[in-house]
Amino acid sequence: MGPTTLGAVTDAFDPSALFGGGAGGENPMAGLMAQVQQMQSQMEAAHEVISATAVVGTAGNGLVTLTGDGTGAIKSVEISRDVVDPEDIETLQDLVVGAFADFAANRDALVADKMGPLAGGGGLPGLS
Questions:
Q1: Any domain includes 75
Q2: 53: phi then psi, degrees, rounded to nearest 5
Q3: Is 76 helix (H, G, I), strand (E, B) or coil?
Q4: Which of 9, 77, 82, 110 is the most buried (most CB within 10 A)?
Q5: pTM exceeds 0.70 for this model
Q6: In a domain, 17, yes or no
Q7: Does residue 98 lie within any of the structural domains?
Q8: Keywords on this record (predicted)?
Q9: Sign of torsion, CA 37 38 40 45?
């Protein structure tokens, strides 16, 4: 058996086929840049919605309620008089911690919903 020869490669690599942006490699990065700009616009719009959305965290069936926004900023804390007992401060502390945990979970769900695939690290289409 003799050596095998491959035919010459005649087609030059055309990056526009991967990134878009013009036939024949006219501007192969234009498509990629357009995707990046679109993703940036989507992220900014989602961040505005997240910032403007109220988020609530509760514990003890509403005995402690935290209200804030999607950025995580707490705007108010409400504590029912029913839970204020100078002899049992630990219960109140536990309820406050529970309300913060609920607030954080609700905020994370909001961010995941509004950011969608942008938050998942999926990257640019065609490059994952």
A1: yes
A2: -90, 130
A3: strand
A4: 110
A5: no
A6: no
A7: yes
A8: Cytoplasm, DNA-binding
A9: positive
The model's pLDDT over 13-50, given as tens digits with 9 standing for 90+, comes to: 655 566 555 555 566 677 778 888 888 888 899 899 99
Beta strands at 64-69 and 74-79: parallel, antiparallel or unpaired: antiparallel
| Residue 41 · residue 33 · CB < 8 Å | no
Q: What CATH number is attached to the domain comprising 83? A: 3.30.1310.10
Q: Is 8 a domain residue?
A: no
Instruction: For residue 98, give its domain range.
Output: 38-115
- Of 36, 1, 4, residue with least CA distance to 21: 36
Residue that the structure tokens 């514990």 belong to: 59
Sheet holding 54-59, edge to edge: 54-59, 64-69, 74-79
Helix (H, G, I), strand (E, B) or coil at 27: coil
pLDDT single digits (tens) 51-82: 999 999 999 999 999 999 999 999 999 999 99
